[in-house]
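To whoever is on call:

I kicked off a structure prediction for a single chain this morning and the downstream step that reads the tokens threw a length-mismatch warning. I double-checked the sequence; it's 109 residues and nothing unusual in it as far as I can see. Pasting both halves so you can look.
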Amino acid sequence: MVIGYILTVLGILGSVFTVNYMSHDRYTYSAPLTSHETMVFAIFIVFAVMAAAGIITIIFSIVKKKNQDTLNRITNLNESGKRQHVCQTCGLNLTEGTTICPKCRKKVY
């Protein structure tokens, strides 16, 4: 997820700086394009794709974590249907033998 944040920030910052450069540049950015104008457009597209890839990475990470948490809740049921190895107060998944929840500091039974 950290990579997604880095890609998003770099992509957005690069896109903003590129658009700012284009607005203060002496070129017109209208057809026919010069090689300099084409290069600036290409750089803008690279930054925009980088931002989009970062956003997609963040969304994928969130969905994956949510699905993993759901699977953990299902697999942490004992024979009677009660949750085991899960803090009853905050819902944190615990390792076997834990007596105090590291998140909320409540005693685990």
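Update from on-call: the warning came from a stale cache, not from the record. Cleared it. Sanity check on the structure: The radius of gyration is 25 Å.
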